[in-house]
Write a structure and sequence with these properties.
The protein is mostly beta strands and 241 residues long. 13% of the residues lie in helices and 32% in strands. The chain is built from three helices and ten strands, in the order αββββαβββαβββ.
Length: 241
Amino acid sequence: MTENAISPDARAFLDAFSWDGWIPDERATLLFVVRDGRILLIEKHRGLGRGKVNGPGGRLEPGETPRAAAIREVEEEIRVRPTGIHPAGELRFQFVDGYSIHVYVFRADGFVGDPEPTVEATPLWAEVESIPYERMWEDDAVWLPLLLREQPFSGRFVFDGDLMLTTELALRAAPALQHGAPARPSREGARAPRRRGAPRRFPPGSRSTVAGAAPGSGPRGATATRAFSSGRRPPAPPRNR
């Protein structure tokens, strides 16, 4: 993608947006079972990303921990219970229309049961060397290889619909981020992030780029400390990443 592919509205959003004091509208989970050189994915039938390939996951319920939500969502979507679960990373997504979501990512070594399709999703296996990134969200190709290498990570992205505008990725030292705290109340319906509290800064060595931009070019060049992707608020029903 080139700089010309970014719409004027999206460019104006990027110029004005800050991650300082960012609070998500919703919190959700993703869980990937990796076993015997294969990864268990799904084709989503509803929610945010309908028709795309992703890992099982969905929104946290009030008072639910990310780990508990990840297990519940896998059970609901493909009828198996994951085992050998550990945190892999965290992702923050801001969309140009104002919607935002914080995603806790897990990896599992196995599961109990037989994957089967539901109204939510159809399970599918892929070799780890031939993951169908062309059918997935654009950011997946940025961080999923780290999950496969068991390298903890933290990422932030801004999307305009399906179009990833910018990305920032930071590597974390093991153990991965803590995913045991219950979900905090979401800001459903909020249209823009609020500036509240001290700025959140990623550690030295994190990578930040604007899609299609050369390092250091434009207002959100590859050497910027804060830059992310943008996207469009999907229509009701509630979104599941």
